[in-house]
Amino acid sequence: MSGVYLLLVGFALFLFGYYLGLPESSIDNNKIASEELPFKSSVDLQSKNNKPSTKSFDRDQDVKVNEEDEEKELKNLASPKYLEQMLLAAQSETNPIKRSSAYARALENLNQDNIGQALKAFESLTFWPENRSEYEMLFYSWSQFDPVAAIGYCNSRVSSIGGGAASEVLEDWANRDPESARAWVEDPENVGGMDKFYQFSLLKGWANRDLQGATDYMIGLAGGEELRMFYDRSSYFDMIVASITESFVRPGGFSQGSIWADALPNAKLKEVALWRLGERFSRDRPEEVARWLESHANEKYSARAFQYLGDNWSKTDPESSIDYFSNLPDGKSQEVGIKSSISNWAKQDPLAAGDWLNERESGPKLDSALAAYASTVSTKDGGAAMEWAISISDEKLQQSTIKKVGQEWYRQDKDSVESWLPSSGLSETAQKSIRNPPKKSWWQSMHEK
């Protein structure tokens, strides 16, 4: 026991000595920490942060230096020699994204002083339309300070297709300064035989800046008898009206576009505007287009719009489409709508479409629908389609439909047609035509599948 007692006393003395030998910093770290890091109030911290900082001063100096460097770089980019080097380097770039970016970076600094060097660099670049995007950037920048020179360059570079490039210069010019562009277009010495083509570009650019001004100018053009006759024979007029219609639609949608179209005073303008709006919106919003077009029913200018409405609506909901047209007043709008609706319905469900026709009284107003149905069904069953073709009351339409259906039937079942023809009552010429159906193109064959 005495030995154990002595051992415990020795161990206790050892621990006491070890404790006395520890450094003072290890004894009470919390106390030392509190003495070395005294509490700072928010006021003290704020006053400390508000003291002038040499880092803040250095940052201001860096900003000033960067601004000076940027200004110096812009001057270098705009220098004729440097611009030419940038354009030549861009031409050799194979990465399309980097190539486009390089051209944009170079041409945003185009001006009257360096245009000569830019054109020199473009001499080795094949002209429009092979490198269209590069030339579009060149002409856009050029049109900002000298559009007349840019148009002259386009027409002199390749006279046969230069007009296409020149028209885009004119469009950019009209978007920036429509009155100056208009004055240039109206000068016969400037446009030569391209006046109608340039008028389209003028109006397209003008509409992006001033829709009402472009509309007023377009209405003035349509009022001129000579010009209107020209437009009646070409697609330029449709392009102009469709372009301005689209300009009204972009910011305000269908509502704004339809209000604008309703206010047009000229039937030819209305025809194109209604057609364009009907074509664009009847796919997704047929009911809204249908309600709007009701007030234009059976007007000559609205025929195309009703045709597009019937065609687009009946692709997704043929029964609603044909029900709408059935309730319109008798006339051209009803006729074209039912015709296009029944054609699409016959592709989806020929039996249901046939039942609908059977419930209607035969007569002239149903003839076009019967012809459309017979033509559609004939690709699958020529014999059945012929019965529908024969029921058409209009003799001229009946004969043309019988010929078309008969040729389709002959391709499917030659023997049945040969048995039917002698008692058909058709002329020898008509029978001969049915026996010699034209060969279908691959596109027609695919479309019928």
Give an overview in words.
- The protein has 449 residues and is mainly α.
- The chain has helices at 2-21, 29-36, 42-49, 54-78, 80-91, 96-107, 115-122, 132-143, 147-157, 162-176, 178-185, 188-191, 195-209, 211-223, 225-232, 236-263, 267-281, 286-293, 303-316, 318-326, 332-348, 350-358, 364-377, 382-390, 395-412, 414-420, 428-435, 442-447.
Features:
449 residues, mainly alpha, 28 helices
Mean pLDDT: 80
Helix content: over 70%
Termini Cα gap: 112 Å
Oligomer: single chain
Identify low-pLDDT runs.
22-53, 229-233
Spatial extent as radius of gyration: 40 Å
What is the number of helices?
Answer: 28
Strand content: under 5%
Order of SSEs: HHHHHHHHHHHHHHHHHHHHHHHHHHHH
Outline the secondary-structure elements:
Blueprint: H1 2-21, H2 29-36, H3 42-49, H4 54-78, H5 80-91, H6 96-107, H7 115-122, H8 132-143, H9 147-157, H10 162-176, H11 178-185, H12 188-191, H13 195-209, H14 211-223, H15 225-232, H16 236-263, H17 267-281, H18 286-293, H19 303-316, H20 318-326, H21 332-348, H22 350-358, H23 364-377, H24 382-390, H25 395-412, H26 414-420, H27 428-435, H28 442-447
Helix pairs in contact: 5-6, 5-7, 6-8, 8-10, 9-10, 10-11, 10-13, 11-13, 13-14, 13-16, 14-16, 16-17, 17-19, 18-19, 19-20, 19-21, 20-21, 21-22, 21-23, 22-23, 23-24, 23-25, 24-25, 25-26, 25-27
Provide a short characterization of the protein structure.
The chain is built from 28 helices and no strands.
